[in-house]
Write a structure and sequence with these properties.
Number of domains: 1
Strand content: 35-45%
Keywords: Cytoplasm, Membrane
Number of helices: 2
InterPro entries: PH-like_dom_sf (IPR011993), PH_domain (IPR001849), PHLA1/2/3 (IPR042832)
Family: Belongs to the PHLDA2 family.
Organism: Hucho hucho
Pfam families: PH
CATH superfamily: Pleckstrin-homology domain (PH domain)/Phosphotyrosine-binding domain (PTB)
CATH topology: PH-domain like
Shape: elongated
Order of helices and strands: HEEEEEEEH
CATH class: Mainly Beta
Length: 138
């Protein structure tokens, strides 16, 4: 039995979040969201029966414009292609914006470590190649 990527990734937070629609009237629509170590999955229904929209953490640049007014916390997710997605959650919720920000920082740190290790492996293999190139030089 194969596990999906969502099942393999650790679930960091699950609950309701309101997303502002992209249409002209910009209504707030309640969505069920699941934040994992790799992505934010957004479902239209609470049973998660509909196909989710997956927002990969690698495609998120930052969580921006956090504002608390009355009973809601408003925040914007900015993607790497500079698209802005507006969300809000009730102030009683455990601050989705903070959990998403921390997941993004953790993801970026893991990626930086992987990149560093890859570069180290590439450099450790290159001295022998460098010496052989030096031997061929006139």
């Amino acid at each position: 039995m194969k596990m999906s990527a969502e099942q393999i990734s650790e679930v960091l937070k699950e609950g309701e979040l309101e997303k502002r629609s992209d249409n002209l009237l910009q209504f707030w629509k309640r969505k069920t969201c699941v934040l994992t170590t790799d992505s934010l999955n957004i479902y239209a229904d609470t049973q998660k029966r509909t196909k989710s929209k997956e927002l990969k953490l690698q495609s998120i640049k930052k969580v921006d414009c956090v504002e608390r007014t009355g009973k809601f916390v408003y925040f914007t997710i900015v993607t790497t292609d500079n698209k802005e997605i507006d969300f809000r959650c009730s102030g009683e919720d455990n601050c989705w914006n903070a959990v998403i920000t921390m997941a993004l920082i953790d993801f970026q740190n893991r990626k930086a470590i992987e990149d560093f290790k890859t570069r180290q492996d590439d450099e450790s293999g290159s001295p022998g190649q460098h010496e052989s190139r030096m031997a061929r030089a006139p």
